[in-house]
Write a structure and sequence with these properties.
4-stranded mixed beta sheet; 40% helix; alpha+beta; disordered N terminus; 15 strands; 338 residues; single chain; 3-stranded antiparallel beta sheet
Length: 338
């Protein structure tokens, strides 16, 4: 790969530069044209944005090229003051890609990259870049060298432009589960963006406030809500009497000492993960907690069998002579903000 660096800008911009930066550094327009001809050492990625190398761009360079295209020409494009990556591409940079339906899976060179710009400024979009004017300019951060919105805003912007309820549920849950934002902060951002008027987004936000942290748990919650079973705690942290952390089952009925564990093949069926799953179950059962294990496909395809198993255990625990010794501590069902 041949790399050409004519200005200081490419060294901080992943080998990218705008036409304004090149001409400001004294590179003649004719030189830019000749170097970007077929077979030349540079490439024109977007109008007025050039990759100063012969090899193909990676996903980070494509994302930054979109920001360079959208930023005001005379501004520092890395400042995040006039353009910032958001939505699926910003979430991809954070590694939001493990869930079955993720922003990263939808981010390809053929998918427009969402970039915020300050309203009322307008900018013509391209097949690669979708400028999004906004009057609610967010605080920005730098992810892998690229000016981006914070995860909570990126998730809201992703949800605003997604119609698939499962993708919305999964992506929002994964952002929260990965620790990038708190459910209350995400709910506040969705409300500020006036997205809670959409039933699918409102339902996804309510699930997160209830403690749900994955699409499999969301589907289990939907299934349980259609029954007369007691409402469980979701992802409660259980401790032994001496204060040692025990486990955090997906769903837990503290009065009955019954837990539901949803174990997917993707996350639990390697040898080490499977052994860890068995050890966690043994720890729970050693403290008197009865466990029902199910896969996401069981929740989806044979929910009556899962409900029947839960109902049996919840019924059996009513006259239990020895209640569980574990306690759910520090868990709070988050109230829905007004």
């Amino acid at each position: 790969m041949i790399t050409v660096q004519q200005t200081p800008a490419p060294r901080r911009q992943l080998n990218l530069a705008t036409r304004h930066q090149l001409t400001a550094a004294g590179v003649p327009g004719g030189t830019i044209t000749s170097r970007t001809r077929t077979g030349g050492p540079w490439q024109r990625l977007l109008p007025r944005v050039y990759l100063l190398q012969t090899g193909p761009p990676d996903h980070r360079q494509r994302a930054l090229a979109a920001v360079l295209y959208a930023a005001e020409p005379t501004a520092d494009p890395l400042s995040g003051d006039t353009a910032a990556l958001t939505g699926a591409a910003a979430l991809a940079l954070l590694g939001i890609r493990e869930a079955p339906y993720t922003a990263y899976a939808s981010y390809t060179p053929d998918t427009p990259v969402d970039v915020l710009i300050r309203a009322p400024r307008r900018l013509t979009g391209t097949p690669e870049v979708r400028p999004l004017p906004t009057s609610r300019w967010p605080r920005t951060i730098t992810i892998s060298g690229i000016p981006s919105t914070r995860p909570v805003r990126a998730a809201a912007d992703f949800a605003a432009r997604t119609q698939d309820p499962d993708r919305i549920r999964s992506t929002l849950a994964h952002v929260v589960q990965a620790g990038w934002c708190h459910p209350h902060d995400l709910h506040a951002e969705l409300r500020a963006a006036r997205l809670l008027t959409r039933p699918t987004i409102r339902a996804a936000a309510a699930e997160l406030l209830a403690g749900v942290r994955s699409i499999a748990e969301a589907q289990a919650r939907d299934t349980l809500n259609e029954t007369d079973l007691p409402t469980p705690l979701w992802n409660a942290r259980l401790y032994t009497p001496d204060g040692t952390f025990l486990a955090s089952p997906d769903a837990y009925w503290p009065d009955e000492g019954v837990a539901l564990e949803i174990d997917s093949a993707e996350y639990h069926y390697t040898r080490d993960a499977w052994h860890a799953t068995l050890r966690r179950r043994l720890r729970l059962e050693s403290h008197g907690i009865l466990v029902v294990s199910a896969t996401p496909s069981m929740i989806r395809d044979t929910p009556t069998e899962v409900i029947s198993a839960l109902r049996t255990l919840l019924t059996l625990t009513t006259p239990r002579p020895t209640p569980p010794t574990a306690q759910a501590r520090g868990h709070q069902q988050l109230p829905l903000p007004l």
